[in-house]
Amino acid sequence: MSVEIRLELPERLVKRIEELSRKEGSTIEEKIAEIVYQHLEKDDPDLKAELHLKLCEKYLSEAEQLALKGDYVQASEKAWGAAAQIVKAVAAKRGVDLKSHGDLWRFVTKLREETGDAELGRLWHVANSLHTNFYEAWATPELVEDAINDVKTFVERLKKLL
Predict the structure, then answer these.
(1) Is 75 within 8 Å of 108 (Cβ atoms)?
(2) From CA 77, how far away is CA 106, in angstroms rounded?
(3) How far apart are the C-alpha atoms of 73 and 137, rounded to whole Å?
(4) pTM score, two decimals?
(5) Tell me: the pLDDT tens digits for 70-108?
(6) Better-scored residue on pLDDT, 112 or 43
(7) In a domain, 91, yes or no
(8) Per-position DSSP letters for the chain, written without gaps between them
(9) Which of 30, 60, 89, 118 has the fewest CB atoms lying closer than 10 Å?
């Protein structure tokens, strides 16, 4: 179960959280959840993995909804976010904290080597092309939809590692 909470925060605090999340390549929502987690349960890797898994599922659902509405640029970013969150969930379960895009790439490479599943690397590349599409908006609707399906496959494969 997850609960949605609406917060009213001072603008200065929001700007600081935005700066931190931008620097780390995360969303504001993820950064706030991480801050709360660090304050309350920093020694519970299962809880942190669950936090990332919930964000993954939320972002994947949002990606699908946005694609149905024809907003392929935003759908691209949400699908990339889902892929990043499932990687962070697997890492968290192992007590590993990923803080940068480079950390994500290195961890996916490690999972690829551990599992012998070369497809993980290709699927991760696809997810990252969606992140690029968010900024460049070059992908056609058909390719974005295909990529979202690849992200679903990536998520399902990594869920098995939880």
Answers:
(1) no
(2) 21
(3) 6
(4) 0.81
(5) 999 999 999 999 999 999 999 999 999 998 999 999 999
(6) 112
(7) yes
(8) ----------HHHHHHHHHHHHHHT--HHHHHHHHHHHHHHTT-HHHHHHHHHHHHHHHHHHHHHHHHTT-HHHHHHHHHHHHHHHHHHHHHHTT----SHHHHHHHHHHHHHHHT-THHHHHHHHHHHHHHHHHH--S-HHHHHHHHHHHHHHHHHHHTT-
(9) 118
- 31-56 confidence digits (pLDDT tens): 887 887 777 666 788 988 998 999 99
Phi-psi region at 140: left, alpha or beta (left = phi > 0; alpha = psi -120 to 50): beta
Question: For residue 153, what are the domain limits?
Answer: 11-159
Amino acid making up residue 155: V
Query: Looking at residue 56, which CATH number applies to its domain?
Result: 1.20.120.330
Burial 104-142 (b: 16+ CB within 10 A, else e): bbebbeebbeeeeeeebeebbebbbbbbebbeeeebeee
